[in-house]
Structure formats: structure tokens, C-alpha cells
Amino acid sequence: MAIAQETKAHTHPKMKISSRSIVLWVGVVFMVVFCLAPALWQVLTSFKTNAAISALPTIYFPSFSDLTWDHYTSLGAGFWRYVFNSALVSLLSTLLCLGLGAPAAYTLARIKLPGESLILGGILIVSLFPYVLLFLGLLEIVKFVGLGNNYLALIVPYSAINLPLTILVLRSFFQQLPRDLEDSAKMDGYSTVQMLLKIMIPLTIPALVTTGILAFIFAWNEFIFALTFVTRDAMKTIPVAVAQIGGSSVYEIPYGPIAAATVVGTLPLLVLVLFFQRRIVQGITAGAVKG
Amino acid sequence: MTQDLIRQREQRIGWLLLTPALILLLFVFAYPIGRAFFLSLFTENLGTQLQPIFSGLSNYHRLIEDGRFWESLWNTSVFTGVSIFCELVLGMVFALILNQSFRGRGLVRTSALLPWALPTAVMGLAWAWIFNDQYGVVNDILSRFPFWETNITWLGDPTRAMLALIVADVWKTTPFIAILLLAGLQSIPEDLYEAHAIDGATPWQSFCQVTLPLLTPQIVIALLFRFAQSFGIFDLVQVMTGGGPAGATETVSIYIYATVRRYLDFGYGAALVVVTFVLLILAVVLAGFLLSKARINVSGGR
């Protein structure tokens, strides 16, 4: 709240700083607890024995006898299959998305085309569509082409749903690159395609990584297409597989195994966030603000 | 002459680079919507043995008299309105915090990103566990306060189930809003505040008179994105309540999904898709109008 105070507060010693920084630190602590607590609670649950999970009052600081690996071992080797499915689908759809999105973004940034603003407006609007509006039509296609229980039934839609963001982020990146680069490349006799491959793409790699991470996360987390287009167990992705553990029995929901599955299934995302938080923030803002 | 030729060549290459992406977008976004418009004029359900039979606007007649649809629309509106309001307020607080300089800011920012990055469907289960009637941590914490009811039914009670959904959604999406607003905050020059403070403005005044007006574009954009996502919320509800109890948290998307997948009523499902789509577009147009009022050029840089 007190941004205006900030600069003043730094020059004022003692009293003022302390009251200000108390408010700030209360806010910081609240924010960190708010963001992390639900996830940490799931981590703790995943290590508690069934007795400790259903103990009342709730155990917050378990003793050693309350802890176990059982929920992780109970997931079995089959769970790695889901991790593999998610990884494969997310990775391939991200690559396809970048492969199609980067040239499109370059064109929209640099080459004047008739109807360009119409295309751009369309891409913007499309990025707002909830997927529930799309699954009916896509389901028909998937059935018609016989792609049910095929990775392609997920890879193609995932590439598409990530395309708008990819195009918007990369377009704003291309617009920031100095035009001289391309002009001098053309002077040197490069064709547009050569220039793209030899000069623009290498320069674009950081932006490609940024958008790639976002696309990967969105693909990993997608639920409704994965729920609808894939019914065979061995083909399921993480969100559907984990939700399924919850739905397997009505009366006794296996919270321990769900928690363990949550931890394993979201670990890759945690790693991405830890290593690339700066890039993720850049990507989100470039996609929304510049768009 | 050659100038024209070069431009023509360039445009041809441009279309070549653009077309594959456009085809994929048309295929995955435009086709299903168009198909829904078409299919909504047909009856295609178990009664017609899943064969489409032209029935004009009968699906829309049915929709107008379908209390369940209006109820789901109401539920969606409540969910969207309340959760977006809370997210905006909390997101603003988070953005203001992250805009200060303090030790460990990077770590705080990383932890704020976590809810955004984790899958909604999976974390919905985590929230269902947190709101569990018997062993849930929410009830345990509440029971430690005096004069508080213990063993509150959360997901089994119409109002409280909606509340639980909203809490989970606020947790999940506040970081997104905070990040957008933070970018806006960082673009406001510091001397504006200094000048304002010299004029004798309190921090609250400068927040209302400097920060909020300059942040309007980011706020509108965040609202627009969040509105669209929230209006089509599916995974969280499906996993946490499945639309229950007794349809109290059934959103439009849950109803569409059930119509198509459980009742196999494709024609009516398509009509539901069309109406939801039209409502969404109307809202987007309204937001676009507000954006242009805020003097922001949507299609290009600022």
C-alpha cells in the first residue's frame, strides 16, 4: 500500500522503518503461507501413515512412527507410465507449437500482410475460449478419424491451445529485435527463410525457451481433453490418472496415495518453477500485457 | 517495379510461414464452435439413436425452459464474480508486496508462482482433502477456536461447497493476477509518487489517485483473462464437487460436459455450447470497449 512511503522510509531512520516493515513482513509471511501451505499439506499427507492421516486431532508434526513410504510404493510401476505419457505429450506438443508458432509470430511482427490485424484479433479472442466449448467438436473428429486413445489426439489440440500465447509472446520478442539485423542479412544475399534459420532462430532461443516452458506447463496440466479423448488406462496423463485414484472408491477416498501421486506428478513442474521463475514471469506478462 | 516484386515475394513467404499455424487454429478453435452452431439445430441423442435429425430451434426452446441451465448459469456467475473480486483484491496486495524491495523477494516470488504452475485437477483433490468433513485441516483449525462449530460439512453443503470452490480457485489464480499487476506497477515511474507525496498525499491517496488509474489497463486485461477462464471452469469443480451437492455447484461447463458425455445428448449439448460462447463473446466485446476507453491499442504495442 505504502509505496509512496517507501523512498521516504529509507531515508528516515528507526521508528518509521520498523512499523512499515512490520506490515510488509506480515504481508510476506501471509503470502508465502497462503501459496505454499496447501501444497505442503499434501506433501506431509503423502508421508503419513493411514492411522496418522485419520488421527484426530490432526497431526501437524508427526513423529517417526507416523511416517511411511507406503503411499509412494503403492503407486506402483504403473504410475511411471502416466508420468511418461504426460512428459511425451507435453514435450511433443510444445515442440510442434513452437515449430508452427515461431514462423507465424515472425510474420506477424515483420511482414506486412493484408488482414493482419484481423488475424491478430482472432488469435487474441481465441486465447480466451474455454476448452469446454471445443471438446464436443473435437471429440467428433477424434472419433471420426479413429484417433481415440492415441497420443496425437492430445498432442494436436495441446499445440493449438498453446499457439495463441506462443505467437503473442514471440511476436513481441521479434518486434524488439533490431531490424538492421535482417536488413544487413538481406544485403548479404540471404533469403527470408535462410535469414530465419541462420540469424533469427539462434537469437530467439531464449524467447523460445520461455514460451516453451509455459506451453509445457499448460499441456501437462490440461484436463478436459485428456479426460475425454483418452479412455485406455495405459495412455492416461497425470491429471486424469490422479483424479482417477480419487474416484476409484466412493466411501473411502485414499488420501495417502492421492497425496503421493500429487507429489510425484507435479515434481517436474516444481523443478521448472524453481529454475525458470524469472522466465515464466516474463512469459506471462509478455503474453498478456503486450498482446 | 522491383520494389513491388520484392514485396510480393515477401508477402508470399509471409503467408507460407503463417498458414500452418492458422490452419491448426481454425481446426481446433473455429471448427468446433462452427460445428456446435450447426449441430445445435439438430436433435441427436439416444432418442434418435444418435442420428442427427433436423429440429430447427427446438433445442433453444428447450434451453429457455431448462431450469437446470439457468441454475448452472447462476452458479457460474456467482463463482466467477466472487472469485474474481477476491483474486483481484488479493492479487493487488501480492503485487504491491512483490513491488517492494526486501530480502528474499526472489524466493517469495517463486513460491507465489507455485499455485499457478500446479495442475488444477490435481490440486482440486488436495483442496477436497483440506475441506474434508472428518479429517480436513480446515475443520481442525476451526475447532481450536472457542465457540466454533466443529465438524462442519463443507463439500456436502450447497453454500459452503461453493465457498470451498472459490477458496481453491482464489488460491490457484491469484498469482497470475499478481504477476500481471506487478508488471504494471513496475512501469509506473517512482517520481510520480514522490511528487504526489510532496503535495501532501497519504499513501492511500496516492494508491487511489496514481496507482489505480495507471494500472487500469493491466486490471482490465487480468479481468478479461480471468473472466473467460472462470466462466469456463471445469477441472476444479469436476474434481472437488462434481457439481454437487444436488447441483448446487454445477457450472455451465459441468452441465455441458454431463449433457454430452453422460446423457449423450449431442444436439442439446451443442446448443449449450453456442449460448455459452455467445455470452462469452458479449463479455469480451464489452471488455474490449472498456480497454479502448482506457486508450490501449489491443492489436499492437502501446
TrEMBL record, chain A:
Main localization of the protein described in the UniProt heading: membrane
Keywords: Cell membrane, Membrane, Transmembrane, Transmembrane helix, Transport
Membrane topology label: Multi-pass membrane protein
TM spans (from-to): 21-41, 82-106, 118-139, 151-174, 195-220, 258-276
InterPro entries: BP-dep_ABC_trans_perm (IPR050901), MetI-like (IPR000515), MetI-like_sf (IPR035906)
Family: Belongs to the binding-protein-dependent transport system permease family.
Protein's name according to its UniProt entry: Carbohydrate ABC transporter permease
UniProtKB/TrEMBL annotation, chain B:
Keyword Cell membrane set for record: yes
Coiled-coil segments: none
InterPro entries linked to this entry: MetI-like, MetI-like_sf
Location of the protein in the cell: Cell membrane
CDD domains listed in its UniProt record: TM_PBP2 (cd06261)
Signal peptide per UniProt: none
This protein's UniProt keywords: Cell membrane, Membrane, Transmembrane, Transmembrane helix, Transport
PROSITE patterns, alphabetized: ABC_TM1
Membrane topology: Multi-pass membrane protein
Keyword Cell membrane listed: yes
TM region(s), chain numbering: 12-33, 78-98, 110-130, 161-185, 206-228, 266-292
Similarity remark: Belongs to the binding-protein-dependent transport system permease family.
Protein name: Sugar ABC transporter permease
Originating organism: Spirulina subsalsa FACHB-351
